[in-house]
Design a protein that fits this description.
The protein has about 375 residues and is of the alpha/beta class. The protein has two domains: about 220 residues, Alpha-Beta Complex (DHBP synthase); about 120 residues, Rossmann fold (3-Layer(aba) Sandwich), CATH 3.40.50.11030. The protein is built from eleven helices and 15 strands. It has a ten-stranded mixed β-sheet with strand order 1-8-2-3-7-4-6-5-9-10, sandwiched between helices. A five-stranded parallel β-sheet has the order 13-12-14-11-15, with helices on both faces. Helix 8 links the parallel strand 12 and strand 13. The longest helix has 17 residues. It is globular and about 65 Å long. The relative contact order is 0.15.
Length: about 375
């Protein structure tokens, strides 16, 4: 667990947010402060998107490079005209289907949005979150809210308020604790300023869902799986990305992450390969975490029973969820990466999943945490 990093934390009902608490947080935003709040994806670190100095506070708190753009959150569809210069017909179809929800759209930037919010480029990323606390906060503040994930840049994203406290603590003026987030991976970012549209970051809305509305979309390639280490706000380099999660190191725990992949029918073979690597690492003096799935937990349990005495004392084996419902895995991966760090693990061995549906976003996050490397079985 993290040390005590004092800041104001308010518990808010995630279904029926208390108006007086929402008003208090909204006042902080209007006055140029920082508020961490839950969304359906992860916790966000919010500031008034139209206030340059407030937005700079986000970059300072996170240690975020200045060219890494922020997503602007709105509470009503009609608020889009205040941040986007043009709204094409394709946006209308996507908004009608997916907002509120985990889909961010790229638009031409409205002049009211300062360049600091967009990372210095003339496009702006916008979404409407599907969470009662987030929507109430943005509506009560009366301003669009710029909000990246509420963590130190490069770290696994926060899915409970405790993660925010550990990473940012007193750097935040107020934290709204609405319990664990539901989706667990960030929103999908779709660039609709080009034809066909391009998925810049996979997320909670799947490529298949998007294709069902707009037809062909371009998916991110392997070059997006690895990224530069984070630099300081003054040390950004190279071309500016259009969306967060594209250029810099993300989602990384302190421990080394080793990702394994295989076809869906070879779960046992993958488990045996991971076990062999785990026992090798333990013999070399490492503490090892294994992030398995419900389908393979029994296999590891059998291997543990037959392991030599003392082999398993340096092993942590935890299931991330079931392959039959990838949303169970998406909602837990960031929390588990943090849990392994808390447990003092040196190396985390992770079972990959099939890259269809939500699995595409899950594997994107795990590849980035593993530095782009995947061991195929």
């Amino acid at each position: 667990m993290c040390g005590n990093k004092k800041t104001d934390v308010i518990r808010v009902d995630p279904v029926h947010p208390e108006l007086d608490l929402i008003r208090r947080a909204a006042r902080v935003l209007r006055e140029g402060g920082l508020v961490a709040f839950p969304t359906e994806t992860v916790y966000g670190l919010g500031a008034n998107a139209l206030n340059e100095e407030a937005v700079r506070g986000i970059f300072r708190a996170k240690g975020r490079p200045a060219d890494n753009p922020l997503i602007v959150h709105i509470a009503r569809k009609e608020d889009l005209t205040g941040v986007a210069l043009a709204i094409p017909s394709i946006a209308e179809r996507l908004i009608d289907r997916f907002w509120p929800g985990p889909l961010t759209l790229i638009f031409p930037r409205h002049p009211s949005v300062p360049l600091v919010t967009t990372g210095g480029i003339d496009t702006v990323a916008v979404r409407m979150p599907d969470h009662d606390i987030a929507l109430a906060l943005i509506a009560e503040a009366g301003v669009p809210v710029a909000a990246p994930s509420a963590n130190t840049s490069g770290r696994p994203s926060p899915t409970v308020a405790e993660h925010v406290i550990c990473d940012l603590g007193s750097k935040v003026d107020l934290i709204l604790d609405g319990g664990p987030t539901a989706v667990g991976v960030e929103s999908t970012v779709l660039d609709i300023t080009v034809t066909p549209p391009v998925i810049l970051r996979p997320g909670g809305t799947t490529p298949e869902e998007i294709q069902s509305v707009v037809g062909d979309v371009i998916l991110p390639g392997p070059e997006t799986w690895t990224a530069e280490p984070d630099s300081t706000a003054d040390g950004a380099r190279g071309p500016a990305p259009k969306a967060p999660g594209m250029k810099y190191r993300h989602y990384s725990p302190e421990a080394e992450v080793v990702l394994f992949g295989t076809s869906e029918g070879r779960v046992q073979a993958m488990a045996e390969r991971i076990w062999a690597e785990a026992t090798r690492l333990v013999a070399s003096g490492k503490r090892v975490g294994i992030m398995c799935t419900d389908e393979s937990c029994g296999l590891y349990a059998s291997l543990v029973r037959h392991a030599p005495s003392g082999t398993t004392s340096s092993l942590d084996i935890v299931s991330s969820g079931t392959r039959q419902d990838l949303s169970t895995i998406a909602s837990k991966i960031f929390a588990l990466l943090r849990q392994f760090d808390d447990d003092g693990v040196d190396v985390i061995l992770v079972e990959g999943v099939d890259e269809r549906g939500l699995g595409f976003a899950i594997m994107n996050r795990l590849r980035k945490a593993a530095g782009g490397r995947v061991i195929m079985v």
